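Troubleshooting: if your tokenizer reports a length mismatch, compare your output against this known-good record of 223 residues.
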Amino acid sequence: MNYNFKFSALLPYTDDIVQGALLTLYLSVVTMCIGLMIGGVVAVGRNSPVAAIRVAARVYVETLRNTPLLVQLFIVFFGLPTLGIRFGANAAAIVALSLNVGAYAAEIFRAGIESIHRSQVESGRSLGLTAYQTFRHVVLFQAVKAVYPALASQFVLLLLATSVVSSIGATELFHEAAFIESRTFRSFEVYALITLSYLVMTLAFRGLFAGIYWAAFVRRPAR
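Known-good structure output:
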């Protein structure tokens, strides 16, 4: 093998890599927050007494979970302009990713709520607690504890999935990698560095989420 590794060729593009990584983190955090809000609303809709709302929520969840994220992204960026709705690349990325995450978060929330046995709710009400107090003191902590690992994993998957939005020109980490590779022609070095960047970010967040779980649920101060 006669290939000469030259990682030094990437040094002039350090700022581009940093900017790409920051946008990746921004897209991940913003879309996760929006997706959680959407998921919460849809999870409530899945249990609505109104049949039309239940059906609409289920159609949303099944459609978004059973179609490719790339197709959803292209519909938002290329399809909606034909209806007069236009987004920039980064805005389209946020919309598509948020809708996608919302569908998965809705199912995670629904599973968490349903994991709380009905008898615990009935016990809270029998003690004189209101519906809100029962939810706050009996259901909420247990439900959050049940869904936390799944939501943490969903965030990590989302962070990795942001690489898809480079296909519409969003200047996140993978887009910057393609740009640098086109200038330096150092394909191995560029993508090895980008792989390491994603690895560092995901491991850092996994460690952060594990620490939060330990502090919030394992080492929870007694009341």
